[in-house]
Amino acid sequence: MASMIISPTFSVNRSSRDCKILKNTIRQCQGIKAMHIEKPLEELYNIRVERKVSRDRLAELGVSKWSAWKTDKCKLPWDWQVDQLVYIEEGEVRVVPEGSKKYMRFVAGDLVRYPKWFEADLFFNAPYQERYSFRAYGDDH
Q1: Exposed, middle or buried, 87 (CB in 10 Å: 0-12/13-18/19+)?
Q2: Which pLDDT value is given to residue 5?
Q3: pTM of the model
Q4: Backbone phi and psi for residue 45, each to the nearest 5 degrees, phi listed first
Q5: What is the mean pLDDT of the chain?
Q6: Which residues contact 63 (CB under 8 A, 6 or more apart)?
Q7: Is 81 left (phi over 0), alpha (psi -120 to 50) or beta?
Q8: What is the three-class DSSP state of 82?
């Protein structure tokens, strides 16, 4: 057996006084602005950064034994096939994720963990040098 719900129809007649009150209320609320909170790119792309890494931390990781890479001013499209841990020894890099107009900036002294499958353009504006180590999934050392 089917049931039917019937809802009543309402009609509202507002007086001019009610409209004035409503307009004043709206005018008073115009100072309220919507907030749009955007996550940092590092969080969006799961990139972990440690700034101004201590010598003890570098020794713990064995950074001095990692492979070295350096370049001069250039733009390099890159995609990470594995997780990579990078310690920036000299210079800076701007990392623009694929499809983004925003960038992350990493400088000498930063330890950066790039996740597998991340794609970005790397911009180097001066001599740059890093040490890097490929990581297995879940290897957070």
Answers
A1: buried
A2: 46
A3: 0.71
A4: -105, 10
A5: 83
A6: 87, 131, 133
A7: alpha
A8: coil
For residue 56, give the H/E element and its range: helix 55-61
Q: Tens digits of per-residue pLDDT, 64-90?
A: 999 999 999 999 999 999 999 999 999
How far is 53 from 40, CA to CA, in rounded Å?
20
Beta strand 104-107 pairing with 74-79: unpaired
The tokens for 26 are 């709206």
- Tally of CA atoms within 13 A in the half-sphere of 53 that contains its CB: 24
Confidence of residue 12 (pLDDT cuts 50, 70, 90): very low
The answer to whether 111 and 141 are in contact (CB under 8 A) is no
Contact 102, 55 (CB under 8 A): no
Domains (range + CATH), the chain: 49-134 (2.60.120.10)
